[in-house]
Protein 1
Amino acid sequence: MSFLGSVAGTLLAFNDPLVPTSGQGTFWMPESASTQAPFVDHVFDFITVLSYFFQIVITIVLVWFAIRYRKRKGQVNFEDDGPVHNTALELTWTLVPLFLVVGIFYVGMAGFLDLRRAPSSAYEVSVTAQKWSWSFDHPEYGVNQAGVVTVPVGRPVEFLMTSADVLHSCFVPAFRVKQDIIPGRYSRLWFEATKPGVYQLYCTEYCGTDHSKMLALVEVLPEDQFQETMGKLATEYMDLPEQDLPTYALDRLYNRCSSCHSLDGSTAVGPSFKGLWDRTANGETVFKDGRRLSDMIGPGKEFPEPEDYIRDSILVPQSHIVQNYAGAMPSFQGQLKERQVLALVLMMKYLDRMVDDQGNRIESPDLNELDPGMGEVEASAPEIGDENEFDAVATAGKGG
Amino acid sequence: MSQLDINPAHGHDHDHHDHLPHQGHHWRDSKQQFEAGKLGMWLFLSTEILLFGGLFVAYAVWRANHPEIFEYGSQFLDTFWGGLNTCVLLLSSMTMAMAVTYSARGQMKAVAICLVLTLFGAGGFMVIKYIEYNHKIHEGLLPGMYFYEKPEASYMWLPLDEQGREAEAAAALSAEEQSAAFAAQVQLESEMPPAPANAEIWTKSPAATGPEGFTDSKLKVETSELRAFLPDSVIGKVENSGPLLKFAEDTSPNKELHLAHPLQDPERPVNAQKFFSIYFMMTGLHGIHVIVGGIVITWLLILTLRGRFSYDYYTPIDLGGLYWHIVDVIWIFLFPLFYLI
Amino acid sequence: MLLRPQEKVADMTTLEAGTHERPKLVEDNYLTHTTGLKSWLLTVDHKRIGLMYLVSVLGAFFMGGVFALLVRTQLLTPEGTIMGQDQYNQAFTLHGAIMVFLVIIPSVPASLGNFILPIMLGAKDVAFPRLNLFSYYLWIIGALFFVMAMFTGGLDTGWTFYTPYSTDTNSAMGGVIPALTGAFILGFASIFTGMNFLVTIHRLRPPGMTWFRMPLFPWSIYATSVIQVLATPVLGITLALLVVERAFGIGIFNPALGGDPVLYQHFFWFYSHPAVYIMILPAMGVISELISVHSHRHIFGYSFIAWSSIAIAVFSFLVWGHHMFTSGQSGLVSVIFSAITFSVAIPSAVKIFNWLATMYKGTISWNTPMLYGMGFLFIFTIGGLTGLHLGTLATDVHLHDTYFVVAHFHYVMMGSALLAFIGGIHHWWPKMTGKMYNENAGRFAWFLVFVGFNVTFLSQFMLGSQGMPRRYATYPEDAGFQIYHMISTYGSYVMGLGFVVTAIYLVASLFSGRKAPANPWGGRSLEWQCASPPPWDNFAEQPVVGDCYDFTVLEWSEKEQGYVWRSDIPHPDGSPAAESEGSH
Ligand code: HEA
Ligand code: HEA
Ligand code: CUA
Ligand SMILES: [Cu+2]
């Protein structure tokens, strides 16, 4: 195998003349950037060489016979003195392919089984596929990424994947890995990147309208840069100016709320975020025990400002359950940093500037002139939770 | 069987042989024709078995994954009616076999009588099936999402008496009870398909949408709330006296005790509706076959009465009999799978 | 349609009287025997039904082909040229579904098989002629449902109808239920055709024709029919479950209701993998005829070829899981499926080599059917060998759901099965229509199709192994895909042109083609022993069966412009040697 592999390698490993941009790819295979890739390429080349062999032999024989035994001009009648069968010959061309395919099967299987099991030390990323976007959570750092996932080089990485709607499939050609993603189940895919770079990730299971746009990038970084990036992502909200906090919350935090709270006004497990700010500020909300929010907001009351009520709903949701809802929301105390809670409050407040009526994100919302004094909430709120930046637990709970 | 024409009437007269009237022009003799017909019928029956085979596999997979649903669901089937139907079908299979035997002996009157009896069997089966189905539909034990639509349809649901109401009011105060209610509701919700987070409201023309309600995120949410299905009297109770979803059983001696509609039973296994889905699918497909069988037997009966068959030509009766036996055999499998185990 | 007024039977009395010495001038054939629309629509004659199938299937092929050209045109540029996302998704779905369910599955068996098989067996008709007509109308109804699907909201699920996408009313378009119903009905059309052929082959062979003296075309039809009868009902019930799932939400396949979407894939491929051999086996039967007849050589290794058809049919039931290597099925299951997948390659290899050996020492005519036959050997080898890349576990993980798969199955379905069908049409065209097509035009069109085909799909192998996913309306600009897509698209235009030329000269031959002799190529199987076009009842008397691949007993007759029984050998049916060619 390794001999054949190297033969194949020399036969096949010339650069793709048609694709000037892919420097490292070969004619058949794209650039190879994982520990699995060389093996897959060897198997591929092995079969390809065999195929070349049979294809060339068959074609030559075909053309040769077609020309050699062609019907000449004027020839109308035929002698038939060729053999009608030849058991030895026929057994040969039954058994030779048989041995060959047993070989191919074995090679392909051995690698497949090895490659299925992720090493236990793998760095884990939870992946959620959804029509038509990817979301990547790094539980170790409490970081969420969308559209691009950053992973370290030279360390096994395991994707723990699930889907929020239909089937999807995660495919990174440069790593030669692919795995379908099934709603209601977890599927795993692992790889170990061998060189830093940015690689394309595709959805390869048909999933509807924008299937072909369900792309993402895998950014492979050296270990130190990786740590640095994770650290930055985990704390980026600390350095953000306040007018960027609402968008930060919508892009990075809302995905934890989205299974229960919609943006378009439709009711789900919990109330929609659409109009929530107005309902709160006007005190329209009615609770299970019949009290109205307007009775609780105001100086000296339970919630001095409307913002306090929202903050409370995130951190101690069970204390006030809105009428008609089951109260299934878990507390996010300890999972969210104070500034992230603030970001969420601000997100609610300026939601209608960031999303349209259907709940779709507006590209570049105008948040430059936020109301003055928006920092007050922070001031009035007591500090809860410790300040260790890295212990945020990223298990997105069900909101209520 | 009607699709298998043993008797193609070619509209021309090129025949060089003296064919019997029932023999198609492309056969050498009636033996060849008979054998071909029989082979064709067996092939057809094997496709029928494969057709049901798919459903049996589905049943097996479902049952293996969720035995509790099947144990729970089968309580709602009435073994009496099922058993009666089994007997009816077995008897009709017997009369069908007798019809074949008599036709081989040329006793065409007896054949006609047997066919009539078989037809009664088919009719009887369908009547009993109708009674059963009607029951289920009445009680709201429906397949798929329709199961969630009318729990109140259960005629066994009876209002609480005075005492029960007081007990409930007291219980309402207990926080435990409250959580039970929410548990029931949460369970109900968990059984509904979640709307994808970015689901759009379905705006296509109604013809194209399939059933409304369970995927449209708006509608879904409404139906997903337990209260939406329950009659006002029940909602009132839920609000006033807490979530006691138990219903009072009418204890007056001349009324039977009934099971609750599963939706009113917080103890039901998740996705209890699946039992009724597969029950209706399998027995429904079987029922369609019984109806087709009935049509075939009627057709055979007409031909018999017209004197088309004799001891040396009764292929259609033979083949029709085969078909009827298969329909019977399939039921023999369905009955224990749904009613007994 | 094919009637020419002057050929209508004028003198019925001659006909009635004439059996052996039917006057050559009065042409009573199946086309002219009865007239009027009704005589076609209600016919139970296998030849007319075959012809109606042929016309309908070709119609569907052109429809599917137009969708294919739309798909190709869209992919000229990374951001797409002519369609939006949803339209593209509909285009490839309808293309795939039409090509599979309406075209390639019924192509050879239902049209050529219906026409030729009974004649090859010396029978007057198939076993159940009315069932035959019934299945044709089922096909029509199924096709109408597909058309309906296009107008009731469209169909965008891919031809595989994977759940939960296809059962979610929010996702998939509204045409799903009509399309599923259509496919269900087409399934039954296919089952009934298969049943009919099985019984015909079992019961209607003439006395001297034992199983191993039967031509290879019936053998392959036999193997196909076994698959049709045993696999299609499972598809039927699967589609029915899908309809119920979508309409009632029963939750068998929907994970949101505790169902299992992977179960659906098992159900679907349990049918659809054997279905790919439903497509290729009849084509292989056609090729066996084309290669031997046009090489004028006895087929090499008859029994190996016959048995390999049966072997393929048997193995085909055991390999469906190779479509699901990345679906999350267990590793062990994948390994088993991979192993059995390779076993199918062996009988295919046997056939390829036997056909090559048949050409050895032959007298090979370079006419259109033979060109299609030789093209098949080249193309099927590529298609089959790339199947090995896909059957291998490690490589399939990379190649699954990329254009490599697309290229593979076009090589086997389009390049092999469909082109064999086209070759078969040319081979039996004189028999079916009584007219010769223009041979040079045929060669030219074959060249366009062959070259166009390879340009279109060879480039897709590289596209796929480089990572281009299938079912993509747009693709990234910087991945280097565009150049391959452009080559592929231009190739498809050349191929389309080839088909247009084919359509033109074939239709033209109906009006101005030379009259076909009974045996233009020198074939030995029974269909070449009755007139072209065949008379209404094929054979007035049971024909005598010989070795259907022994071509040395024939000789060219200048008078007939076709082949006749050699004058120096007595004809087996005892009639005088020289004029026995149309032996009825
Ligand atoms: C006519 C149809 C047809 C035929 C004949 C075949 C033939 C084969 N197919 Fe193909 N296949 C399809 C139609 C067909 N296929 C379709 C439609 C799909 C995709 C469906 C979809 O997803 O939409 C598919 C997909 C498909 C897959 C799944 C890919 C994926 O989705 O990941 C696989 C995997 O194993 C596969 C394998 C094979 C093999 C091993 C053969 C073998 O039978 C080939 C055997 C032939 C040869 C091997 C060549 C001849 C032999 C020689 C020249 C001798 C030398 C040989 C050896 C050394 C062994 N096919
Ligand atoms: C027998 C089956 C069959 C046949 C014959 C074909 C034939 C062709 N197919 Fe098909 N194809 C499938 C079965 C088939 N296909 C299937 C099953 C799929 C998968 C679908 C899915 O993913 O669900 C698929 C998918 C598929 C794709 C992938 C789409 C995607 O994944 O995004 C592509 C892309 O190039 C393609 C191209 C073609 C082309 C160019 C032809 C050509 O060979 C067509 C040649 C025919 C013609 C060209 C018709 C001639 C008519 C004319 C020329 C009329 C001309 C009129 C004018 C020019 C006005 N096909
Ligand atoms: Cu997600 Cu395709
Ligand atoms: Cu397959």
Protein 2
Amino acid sequence: MNLLSSGLVRGLLAQTLGTSVGMAFVMAVRVALGLPAWNREPVVVGGALVGAIAFVFGVGAVSDWMKLARGEQISDDHTPDPDKPAWIRYFNVDYDHKVIGIQYGVTSMILLLVAGLFAMIFRTELAKSGMQFLPPEVYNTLMSLHGIVMIGSILLGVGAMSNYLVPLMIGANDMAFPRLNSLAFWVNVPGIILLLSSLFLGGFDTGWTGYPPNSVYAALGVQMFFLGVYFIGLSSILGSINLIVTIVRMRAPGMTYMRMPIFVWAALATALIGFTATQLIGLSFQMVILERIFDMSFFDGTDGGNPILFQHLFWFYSHPAVYVFVLPGLGIISELLPVFARKPLFGYKWVAFSSMGIALVGFFVWAHHMFTSGMATYLRVPFMYSTMLVAVPTGVKFFSWVGTIWRGKISFPTPMLFTLGAVVVFLIGGLTGPPNGLVATNLHLHDTYWVVGHFHNTMFGGFIFPFFAAIYFWFPKMSGRKYSETLGKLHFWLMFPAFLIMSLVQMRVGLLGMRRRISDYDPALGFDDSHMVITIAGFVIGVSVLIMVWNLIRSARRGEQATGNLWNSRSPEWQIPSPVPLHNYEQPIAVVGKPYDYGLPGSVYVDMNPSASSDK
Amino acid sequence: MVHFVIVGILVIISTYFVFNGLVNADLLPEQASLQAEAIDELFNVEWFFIAFFFSLIVVFLLYSIVVFRRKPGEEGDGDHIEGNTKLEIVWTVIPLGIVIYLAILGAQTLGKIEARDPNALEINVVASRWTWSFEYPEYGVTSAELALPVDRQVLLRMRSTDVIHSFWVPEFRVKQDVLPGGEAFVRELRLTPSEIGEYKLRCAELCGLQHTGMIANVVVTDAFGFNAWVMEQTGCEDSEEVCAGFQWAGEYGCTSCHTIDGTASIGPTWRGLFGSNVPLEGGASVVADENFIRESILDPDAKIHEGYLPGIMSAQNFADRLSAEQIEELIAFIKSLE
Ligand SMILES: [Cu+2]
Ligand SMILES: [Cu+2]
């Protein structure tokens, strides 16, 4: 088979070629300006930028638009070639939202493993005090990459869930803009390549926050980090537009907003944030790129700039971004609890609006990351109040979850275990938030392992656990096969306690004085045992995730056939065969009831064949 | 109803144990500043609400998991309960009240830890990759170690010469980023050490390659120890005479009444004394030259500094206890303090 028939390979070749062309172009411009042709930084950055754009062309993500621009006809029929093996679709531009969802999901899992591997490496270094095997520059780069690659993984995981699930849940046959959807996925790939290429260009020792002036002085790798984030952020913006339009315009007849599956509410709130805030991280990074290449002193105080300005721009995205990471996961929790408790979601309306509330309040709290930054001191108290308000809609979710399982008939297959684990872990993440939000205690906690522990609780509780729950829950829908319940439970019972131990110990050493982002610590602090525990727990988490990967790969090939409504769910996607047919629903479906009326005899959510019922 | 009573009791028990666990778990480093005391009080309030809400949710969750689990052979769905508007309002309004209460407490604590003392000792902190340096403008001293007198507020005026660093001594709790960019970016931090001891200042903001090792020693001593430190930094380098005088000042207890940092005590301060015009009881004044100081040691009540009491120093009988040489050395020391 021809290797070039894979879009991915064509894209990678185009990126390589584009990078050389871009570099040559920058050198030509420099010569024209009378500068020496070679200057590593501008030449490499120019090459990287052109290379990434070339990838998008090479992979074919914009081919249809190019045809339209040339006045050629394009086809709306995207039935895959029956002569080619099915898997080849996943390595090519494909407009099916299910394929794109799985592309997002698999890429997300790969990044999760890569970033997890980085963590394993530096956790080994930290297992005891004293320098073991990692020189500080490598440590700093791995630590920074762990952060940003995980964020990439989470954004892609969010993309996976919303792309795969939203059209199915609202009874649509695809997203509103399938071509845009495919482009939004594929721009991630060159972004990831740039991000990881920083490893070979001197790394970057700035953390994922990239604060100047430190990032202005950092090695060339930091530029690759900025550019990588730029493309991954572009994906967020494009994906969000698509999702908003899809949800607003393409719901099945009868599906009013108050009858949408709750995950769709979460996806909508998430998309609104992604669509409006992501620009700011792009902007802040772009300003550092320009400061480095053209000496524009945006952030240099001695030259009219302001180093704190960056932090405002950066956190204006990066605080709401944590809601991009967790809202979909919280939506999954709200989605799965009713199924396994066999009860309606308690206070549907309140849960739905709490997502919107969190999204809205999330825009007014960014400076809580800057209480010690030296910004104007009068800003601190107002931002403390707005930050504390986030606790209210978040609390509504917890109470509603408890209300949902109360008096239910609860069963505990793997997805439910992960959902319950998510509630507990996110609870710890939520409760350890207010001490950071109150300025006085923040002054002690800021930049310590307490924050590391708190943040990992919110990410594991708000994303990782629910994401894994979602994978187990919909894996049979995606693959048509069942996963191994034994391995699934083993995964949970390894990961859940290990994670709790890891994060609680992190928070403890943080309170006692352990700074974050350091490659070594003073043995006099007496943290050696604690760090050994954190490292061991981290490895247990790593092993448990590998068990899941093994479980999924093996089950996808020879798992037991999954037929019918496996979880006895009311959601429309479980009323059709698994794996989902090419065009989802054979005929348009109609929504005739509420989504979570478990326990109400005779109630119906969707009419799968409304034309037949109206004939009667 | 029975369910709620049981769960309610369990929540109270669990809150009690979790709260006590958190308070007694030695979660915070030693308290070595006034600011730390205020901050730790707030921590305790936070631990209480964490314990309560953690117990509330987890007890309900575990109870449901145990009591409402699907028993073997059980079929069908749970009760059809869609929600309860009154409950939703309750669990919106009560948490709202609690977070506002916490924010008010937070603001009050912030006010406490930022309280200004006009007599604060000013120190300029300069951070550079990857070292700290401390300037004491009052004494003309620059040091790589941060020496602080106990129980006196210090005002740190901090700047960086390159990237952003952050000043943090865990035992003092408070933290402040140190910014580059010149005068407009000098940032202040006030703290009042309350425990004598040795601590470490560790840079808390990632500042590049050797960020991990950007550490300085912090020494908190009593007023005399601090003065000794200042002398060590200045006088002894210049002259043996001054150094010896400084030693006698400590040994004979002079500095327990006469400070050398400019603050008034039982006796007038020695800082800036030499050469100054000393107002005397009764309205006259005298220039503090060598003769005046010598006389004041040998016969303290001969001339009384305005606002101070006679009899206290003369009772010590220094004329008999000090040799002429020692007195000359003391005078040299006082001279060095102008
Ligand atoms: Cu935030
Ligand atoms: Cu530093």
